[in-house]
Amino acid sequence: MESIIEELIQIENKATAITEQAEASKRNLHSIIDQKRQEIMAIAAKNTDETIDKLKALALEQAQAKIKEVEASSQEKLAALQADYDAHRAAWVEEIYNRVLEQGGEQREV
Q: What is the SS3 assignment for 30-86?
């Protein structure tokens, strides 16, 4: 009977040790999971930051290209206006001069 009690005590001690080991493993597992979660979050944040930086660079590049396109178009239009002015300046000046003279002449008659 005593040997049975000792055997039961040993079994209980082993069971307690196994339970404590399982609890320790469980705590360790939670710690490992938390650590992995933090690592994953850090990687995700880094990837997100890198993606944002790439998108910013792309948007800036596209904006600069559009600016150059608008500037080139503006320069073309300005050159066309200047060429038109150069080609017609003398005629426009003469036209204005004649109109001023015509109006001046009419006013004198009044």
A: HHHHHHHHHHHHHHHHHHHHHHHHHHHHHHHHHHHHHHHHHHHHHHHHHHHHHHHHH
